[in-house]
């Protein structure tokens, strides 16, 4: 899977769950109005779609699209 495709898939997934049309790469999710409940939904969707496990200790890393992408990308590669 190409890296740019992964980032765009994540952008689409996060946008769909949060109902925020524009998800800039480095915008903090809290600033976009994405709350902790949406965050849980986003993580669950990422885990399902990419068949990975996001540990509780890694949850605080998922604060921007770029950080989410880096975490998912490393788990897929690993």
TrEMBL record:
<feature type="domain" description="Carrier">
    <location>
        <begin position="1"/>
        <end position="76"/>
    </location>
</feature>
<dbReference type="Pfam" id="PF00550">
    <property type="entry name" value="PP-binding"/>
</dbReference>
<dbReference type="InterPro" id="IPR036736">
    <property type="entry name" value="ACP-like_sf"/>
</dbReference>
<keyword id="KW-0596">Phosphopantetheine</keyword>
<protein>
    <submittedName>
        <fullName>Acyl carrier protein</fullName>
    </submittedName>
</protein>
<dbReference type="InterPro" id="IPR006162">
    <property type="entry name" value="Ppantetheine_attach_site"/>
</dbReference>
<dbReference type="InterPro" id="IPR009081">
    <property type="entry name" value="PP-bd_ACP"/>
</dbReference>
<keyword id="KW-0597">Phosphoprotein</keyword>
<dbReference type="InterPro" id="IPR020806">
    <property type="entry name" value="PKS_PP-bd"/>
</dbReference>
